[in-house]
Amino acid sequence: MMSAIERLRQMVGLEPIVSPKPRPDLYHYLGQTPTEQAEALAEKTLPGSDPVVVTARRKRADIFTYIVEFLARSTFEVPYRAEMGKGQNLARRPFLAPSGAAEGGTFDFAEGYRWDTFFQNKTLIIAGAYDLAIDQLLNLADVFQDYGRIPNALTTWFLSHAQPPLEALGVFDLLEAGVPPGAWSDRVMRIVEQDLVKEWWDHATGKKNPRQTSALVNQYGPCITRHTSIHYHPLLVGCEDGKDHNWVTAAYGEHYLPVQVNAILYGVLGRLARYYQTFRPDAERASLYKTLQDDLGEACQRLFWLAEGRWRGFRNYSLRPEDEGPIRYGDLGAEIWPLFVGLATPQQAEVTRQNLAHFYAGDYGLAATSKALRAGGSIETAPQGWTFQWEENCWPPLMLIATEGLLRYSTSETDAFAQDALSYQARWIRWAEAEFARSGGFHEKSPYAADQQIEGGYYGVLKGFGWTIAAYLTFLQRLAQYQHLESL
């Protein structure tokens, strides 16, 4: 029987809430049955006839089946502007949701998300689903054209706040996989250019609620802080950095310069310079972006690198008058993004490598923050009134950024950078496979050590999960590339 509220919705002329339509047909190129698709994905992930590789594929048959079933049930198409229950859908094309429909609960991630797209597309590239990966980027470009910004997620609920701008890096993932540039890449990169000025850089643009002011730019250079008065809660400010439930976000809100988002912008500028050097030659644009990247890099080095003491490494920078300067706190994102985008010098990369081993590494993975770097630092006790899922938990996207960042600075397959990266990847895969055997799935986040209880945050531990699968497949490929599969 229709409830009174349902009847009222009908009477006032509102359309019913739409359930996302799964698009498993987008993976039929892998095969017509789940078994065929799983075997094809296994061969794309671990190609070749070497006995070790063949054994690795067979050993993980159930996991590859789970992954293709996850892709089939979590790839959706929703009519544009249809009501989804979290606002109206803004994706005009199919998209891969992080977790699909809720399993045994009311919370889910059944819409497209901005920074998840970067990690999800790594899975789609490995699977050869290039068209869907491009569609995901074009969905973001469409929303920018319609609303002048790319929000946290692609429904109207999320239009007030952004997530890290990784689209340019995602374009290069596709180009480096052999996808030719074309109208798709030109459109996304043009949106990236506009997004830089319209969303991230505020100084002298006439915008209100700035991340930059003349005073900030004159004193600190082109580094950005967070949006201010449009956000009523630090959690939404933290979304811009990707880590929305951690002590730094709760303690400082917008009153600090974050390493992570500034390092990402450094990487975006580098990709733009390369795009206009190599794929769409435009000397003026390429030179401008290289100059902007150099300026931002200089500011990041000056502000974020703490050269001496226990907290030596890349640190966020407090803007509060009472403690202006480096925030002495162990934030994994601040440590690793400078490596991933090439901002760190080789000497800084070596310090960071040692920091990861000494302060973050656990039995299974890397902690999102370091307990060892809290005592005597800028934030010694937890801010009140929050749950902090971006603290001790191990997060697959940060594992991926950390290990790929280490490999970027490796000069041989046997040096310390490569060995540490492969050790972390193998350690995490062993835990993830053991957890898969226990629970029958992958999860959004995980413990980093055997003696740690996972912090569920405000919505618990969700199964799926898009970026977890991306880390798993990427790590398998890396271990095969470096002939370390037998370590599993």
The level of helicity is 40-55%
**Strand content range:** under 5%
Structural shape: globular
Q: Rg, please?
A: 22 Å
Q: Let me know the number of strands.
A: 10
Keywords:
single chain, 488 residues, mainly alpha, 3-stranded antiparallel sheet, 18 helices, 10 strands, 4% strand
What does this structure look like?
Helix content is 50%, strand content 4%. It is built from 18 helices and 10 strands. The strands form 4 sheets. The chain has a 3-stranded antiparallel β-sheet. The chain has a 3-stranded antiparallel β-sheet with strand order 4-7-8, with no helix packed on it. It has a two-stranded antiparallel ribbon with strand order 5-6. Strand 5 (305-306) and strand 6 form a beta hairpin. Helix 6 (130-147) runs antiparallel to helix 7 (167-176), helix 7 packs across helix 12 (259-279) and helix 12 (259-279) packs antiparallel against helix 13.
Fold topology:
Blueprint: H1 4-11, E1 21-22, H2 34-45, H3 51-59, H4 61-74, E2 75-77, E3 95-96, H5 114-127, H6 130-147, H7 167-176, H8 183-200, H9 214-220, H10 234-239, H11 247-252, E4 256-257, H12 259-279, H13 283-304, E5 305-306, E6 313-314, E7 317-318, E8 325-326, H14 332-340, H15 346-360, H16 396-408, H17 416-439, E9 442-443, E10 463-464, H18 466-481
Short account of what is shown:
It contains 18 helices and 10 strands. By secondary structure, it is mostly helical. The longest helix has 24 residues, at 416-439.
